[in-house]
């Protein structure tokens, strides 16, 4: 218990899915949590569930002004910043032949530009707090590519490369700020269910199959908690797969 006691964490995309589980677990383990999302109603509900140690801010992660506001409000409210979980993102089907330039740019703007802005504005605040941890949500698509998710794969590849650049920059500058990327395969969330066009399947049913590619959002949250905590103090620039060995299975 209390693995992140006293830390102040920002979690983007915290109104549902993985972000919600991240925020709830970090709060249970002692953190003060700033939840951000475009979904005001659901985001405020999660913040209310956490209580006094949570704050919700409406946030378009592709907006530089919104990022400046999130960091400013976090510091004004809680006095410091220790952890940033860049979790928000969008997903759309489209091969290289099917993807329009408009869709490509939309996905890059959110998934790539949004994470760049988060890192850019979190680092100065973390420096003033004596260090911190940035967790960037990427995907196995960044490592192997997914032909039907061309723009998404490219955006998550950018996130992985950004993570390495940020980790090295912070190390060389002596900031004591770590930066790691998390690479899931499938996650059993409303967003992925909507893409697949299938009815929600209970995780217990999925887990009966040892070949299952769909993890529970709580599996991601457990890894995020480790990376946010001081237990991972020597882990930086890592690409952490959470995919039931799918990437290396050859199937």
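-> sequence recovered:
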């Amino acid at each position: 218990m209390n693995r992140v006691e006293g830390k102040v964490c920002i979690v983007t995309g915290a109104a549902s899915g993985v972000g919600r589980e991240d925020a709830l677990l970090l709060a249970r383990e002692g953190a003060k949590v700033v939840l951000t999302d475009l979904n005001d109603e659901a985001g405020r509900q999660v913040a209310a569930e956490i209580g006094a140690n949570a704050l919700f801010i409406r946030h378009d992660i592709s907006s530089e002004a919104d990022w400046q506001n999130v960091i400013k409000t976090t510091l004004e409210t809680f006095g410091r910043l220790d952890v940033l979980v860049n979790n928000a993102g969008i997903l759309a089907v489209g091969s290289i032949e099917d993807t329009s330039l408009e869709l490509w740019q939309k996905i890059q703007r959110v998934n790539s530009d949004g994470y760049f802005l988060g890192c850019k504005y979190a680092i100065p605040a973390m420096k003033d707090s004596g260090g911190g941890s940035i967790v960037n949500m990427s995907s196995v698509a960044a490592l192997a590519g997914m032909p039907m998710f061309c723009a998404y794969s490219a955006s998550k590849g950018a996130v992985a490369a950004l993570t390495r650049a940020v980790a090295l920059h912070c190390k060389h500058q002596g900031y004591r700020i770590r930066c790691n990327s998390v690479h899931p395969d499938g996650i059993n969330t409303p967003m992925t269910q909507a893409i697949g066009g299938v009815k929600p399947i209970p995780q217990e049913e999925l887990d009966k199959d040892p070949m299952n590619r769909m993890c529970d959002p709580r599996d991601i949250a457990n890894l995020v908690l480790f990376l946010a905590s001081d237990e991972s103090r020597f882990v930086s620039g890592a690409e952490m797969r959470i995919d039931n060995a799918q990437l290396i299975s050859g199937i």
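The two ends are 39 Å apart (CA to CA).
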